[in-house]
Design a protein that fits this description.
The complex is a heterodimer of chains A (99) and B (363). Chain A has one domain. With 99 residues, chain A is of the alpha+beta class. A 3-stranded antiparallel sheet of chain A has the order 1-3-2. In chain A, strands 4-5 form a two-stranded antiparallel ribbon. Chain A contains 4 helices and 5 strands, in the order E-H-E-E-H-E-E-H-H. Chain A is 41% helix and 22% strand. Chain B has 2 domains: 102 residues, Sulfate adenylyltransferase; 252 residues, Rossmann fold. A 5-stranded parallel sheet of chain B has the order 8-7-6-9-10, sandwiched between helices. A 4-stranded antiparallel sheet of chain B has the order 1-4-3-2. A two-stranded antiparallel ribbon of chain B has the order 5-13. Classes of the chains: A alpha+beta (99), B alpha/beta (363). The interface between A and B is medium-sized, with 24 and 28 residues.
Chain lengths: 99, 363
């Protein structure tokens, strides 16, 4: 299986409520001391494109091996797409919308 | 530094007189500038910063050195994705050695004014506090519980041999203030959040103090770790914390290269002891931040990093107090409003409009 690279959308109260309303609470995983996160997987190509589109973002190679520091507006857009499609497999659609 | 020192630093990791030294400190200058200004040995130059006089430099030697050789010796890398490589590549062609004399004492602006000490002032401060052992913690980050754990672990290590009647071991947080990139925490947040750790009593205020150092990180991993040890020895510290991937960047160095290098130098070459701390994580079974060398639940471990916590802050999610103290989160928010133009991270606006760390008076 090809390697994937996660993006973490941390769940605050507002996002938790939206997930509950959409019946998607189960999608959020407990990853750190009870903190919940939606984890979306990117392919290697998607990861490289994201890092190019958002130069402030970085791939944390040292510890978590995840894509971090995406700007809030990008994270909000990704989260809204997950709610709309009721699916975590939306990275291609997200990238199409920001290219 | 002159050519003889640069050469031995690169080849033997010592100054020409044999003193341990790992990173050349050079004054670089373009050939054209030397020509245009007619600079020659025996001249005295006035060095300025933002068009204000800062120091004089008595030109004792003008020399060439192979920058690639210097870069390779310090970083062991040539990939331009390494920020240190870009820094060495940007050096001008020639170098000047000479005596530097400060002629204008910088005036530090708030909040940095209360964190700036010369080495002499710091040593006096340690004596005033009655500290016999001083643990240096180098940082470029707002502290999370992992950093707190590093400092506490090193404090135990340094304090172990001392009598129990009186606390004589202190922690000196030494924040690196230097060039910033967008997305980094703003300098004000770094210093004030570390101070908050003792104000909120996560550390006793008589064993913890915060200071700043002006330094451009080379991200040289092991060689920079040696340099940091020398720097803090000069400040009067007796111990230095070295965590996982100290002074590294990306995956250019093995996470423990900066630990291993201390085993490769004569013990007598440093008067400061490295405290090597292994990888830490949050363990849901232990219910605490713990460490690879202690916790047996490696399969259940939950890794976290400063970058991950920055992502949470950026998502406006308050991290659990187990990994990030609520008082620190509140201080980050306060700093964003007060100094960061609404963001705790460096933005283009912050970099363009921030108040300088220090000003130089008009002479």
């Amino acid at each position: 299986m090809a390697e994937t690279y996660p993006i973490s959308i941390w769940i605050n109260e507002g996002r938790c409520k939206k997930l509950e309303e959409a019946g998607l609470s189960d999608m959020a995983k407990d990853v750190l001391a009870g903190m919940k996160v939606l984890q979306l997987q990117c392919t290697g190509e998607q990861k490289d494109e994201i890092l190019k589109l958002y130069p402030m973002a970085k791939f944390d190679t040292a510890t978590t091996e995840s894509i971090e520091l995406l700007p809030a507006e990008a994270k909000n857009k990704i989260f809204d797409l997950v709610i709309k499609r009721k699916n975590l497999d939306i990275m291609e659609e997200f990238l199409r919308s920001v290219r | 530094m002159g050519k003889a020192d640069v050469e031995t630093v690169c080849k033997k990791m010592t100054l020409a007189n044999g003193t341990l030294w790992s990173i050349p400190i050079v004054f670089d200058i373009a050939n054209e500038e030397i020509r245009e200004k007619g600079i020659k040995e025996g001249n005295t130059l006035l060095l300025s910063y933002h068009d204000r006089a800062l120091a004089t430099l008595e030109v004792e030697e003008i020399f060439n050195y192979n920058k690639m050789e210097m870069m390779h010796a310090v970083l062991g890398k040539t990939d331009t994705n390494h920020p240190g490589v870009r820094m060495f590549n940007d050096l001008k062609d020639r170098f000047i050695r000479g005596k530097v004399t400060l002629v204008n004492i910088p005036k530090f602006n708030a909040p940095f004014d209360k964190f700036w000490y010369t080495p002499k002032q710091l040593r006096e401060k340690f004596a005033e506090k009655g500290w016999k052992k001083i643990v240096a913690h180098q940082t470029r980050n707002v502290p999370h519980s992992g950093h707190e754990w590093l400092m506490k672990g090193a404090w135990f290590s340094a304090n172990g041999e001392l009598a129990v009647e009186k606390l004589q071991t202190g922690i000196l947080v030494n924040c690196i203030i230097g060039p910033k990139r967008t997305g980094d925490y703003i300098d004000e947040a770094i210093a004030l959040c570390h101070q908050k750790l003792h104000q909120a009593r996560y550390f006793r205020d008589d064993i913890h103090m915060v200071s700043i150092a002006l330094w451009d990180m080379r991200y040289a991993g092991p060689k920079e770790a040696i340099f940091h040890a020398i720097l803090r020895e000069n400040l009067g510290c007796t111990h230095h914390v070295f965590g996982r991937d100290h002074a590294g960047v990306g995956s250019f160095y093995d996470p423990y290269d900066a630990h291993r290098i201390f085993g490769q130098i004569p013990e007598s070459s440093l008067d400061i002891k490295p405290v090597r701390i292994l990888e830490w994580w949050y363990c849901p079974v232990c219910g605490e931040v713990t460490c690879f060398g202690l916790c047996g639940h490696s399969e259940e471990r939950q890794k976290f990093s400063g970058t991950m916590i920055r992502s949470m802050v950026q998502d406006k999610v308050k991290p659990t107090k187990l990994i990030f103290r609520p008082e620190i989160f509140d201080m980050v928010t306060e700093c964003a409003d007060k100094y960061g133009f609404g963001s705790p991270f460096c933005t283009e606006e912050y970099l363009a409009k921030r108040q300088p760390v220090f000003d130089l008076p008009v002479l």
